[in-house]
Write a structure and sequence with these properties.
about 180 residues, two-stranded antiparallel sheet, two-stranded antiparallel ribbon, elongated
Length: about 180
């Protein structure tokens, strides 16, 4: 078992009530308001989290302004190389915005695709026959109508069917066909 050996200054800070003064804003805050850094006094950064985040945001904005084409190209390359991760992230983000319970893994999604034979649940088109070459994860009961993000509520759909289905439930969509 590894033990963390406190730095000499860290013990001194803890004796002083576990607070530190930020070198940027000058406010005295608890040590929990500072990012950890074991090589510094008290084992934390010299600037509080708020000040460090503000500096990082300014740096990021300046870097993006000067290198926007490079940043966008890098993001596009990542999206292309990691399309499944990108889609999964967007799916989880959208579900969390709507407070929908549940989540599913890439393995769950692959198993669902295999169960449906890599075919759209609505029109039966095979994923290789779609113009995109892939199927989307569609919520049988839409998130907007209280559906979950569990794999049991997910069905594969081609882009055309998923877009035309919209916020209808599985049965509403099939009845309207």
């Amino acid at each position: 078992m590894l033990f963390r050996i406190p730095l000499p200054n860290q013990a001194k800070c803890e004796e002083q009530g576990k607070t530190k003064t930020c070198t940027k804003c000058g406010k005295t805050k608890p040590l929990t308001e500072f990012h950890k850094r074991m090589s510094r006094k008290c084992g934390v950064q010299s600037r509080c989290k708020v000040c460090r985040n503000a500096v990082n945001a300014k740096y990021s904005a300046k870097y993006y302004a000067e290198n926007s084409e490079k940043v966008l190209a890098s993001q596009a390359k990542y999206k292309k190389d990691n399309l499944d991760k990108y889609r999964a992230y967007n799916q989880r983000y959208r579900a969390s915005k709507l407070n929908a319970p549940g989540d599913f893994t890439a393995a769950d999604w692959k198993a669902k695709l295999e169960y449906y034979g890599y075919r759209c649940r609505y029109c039966g088109i095979h994923k290789s026959e779609t113009s995109e070459g892939w199927l989307e994860a569609d919520h049988a009961i839409p998130l907007s109508q209280g559906g979950t993000n569990f794999i049991s509520n997910i069905v594969p759909a081609c882009k055309s069917c998923n877009c035309s289905k919209g916020t209808k439930t599985f049965t509403e969509y099939l009845d309207g066909q």
